[in-house]
Amino acid sequence: MIFSKLFDHTNLRPYATTEDIKKLCQEAITYNFKSVAINNANIEKCRQFLSGSDVLIDAAVGFPLGQSTLDTKLFETRDAITKGADEVDYVINVAAVKDKDFQYIEQEMQAIVGICRESDVTCKVIFENCYLEEDEIIALCQIANKFKPDFIKTSTGFGPSGATIKDVQLMRRHALPEIRIKAAGGIRDLATVEKMIEAGATRIGCSSSVEILKEWQQKA
Q: What amino acid positions are annotated as catalytic residues?
């Protein structure tokens, strides 16, 4: 694995301007990142700014709260793909998990994974672990094992805390080997990235990708 391809270079700020998104895309090309992770309103801009490169467009669905209706999430997923998304990161309905309504979570995951699979688009399921108990994370891993998204993901980065080593290790223990793990939220230095990889993450979502890559280059 090329180290730079671990990163989904991220700008999900609600106030990100066109110039901010252009800069994000230029950095992703320059530093050979896997993708740019952006809000859906910026997909078509990214298609223009990334033209001719192999950098993917990673769209956030139901972001950051996950509290859209299922029909809304399905429309948003299809719309993102139609506009050019190569990957989709969707936020589960955390409230349904807290209500132990795992049938709803299954319905949601099956539908969104299915849409992505039909279009050959990578699907990542955001658990938002900061709100969950260990048994709830395990239950979500078991549902993921049933519907097999490409990735399960720790966090949006907008909750009270982000990725933790403990959570990545827990997800890795309970998810099937073919389901990869994305760590995101609060990852700002190389030491943390290395710990996340050691714990089982194979994709890193962060806005500090450039600084981390430079730190890695200096270390190498």
A: 89, 153, 182
Domain 3-219, CATH number (from 1.50.10.20, 3.30.420.140, 3.50.50.60, 3.20.20.70): 3.20.20.70
**Residue given tokens 């990214």 in the structure block:** 46
**pTM attached to this predicted model:** 0.97
Q: Output the tens digit of pLDDT for each of the chain's 220 residues.
A: 799 999 999 999 999 999 999 999 999 999 999 999 999 999 999 999 999 999 999 999 999 999 999 999 999 999 999 999 999 999 999 999 999 999 999 999 999 999 999 999 999 999 999 999 999 999 999 999 999 999 999 999 999 999 999 999 999 999 999 999 999 999 999 999 999 999 999 999 999 999 999 999 998 7
Domains in the chain: boundaries: 3-219
Q: Which residues make Cβ contacts (< 8 Å) with residue 36, sequence separation at least 6?
A: 8, 9, 10, 11, 21, 24, 25, 28, 46, 50, 55, 56, 57, 58
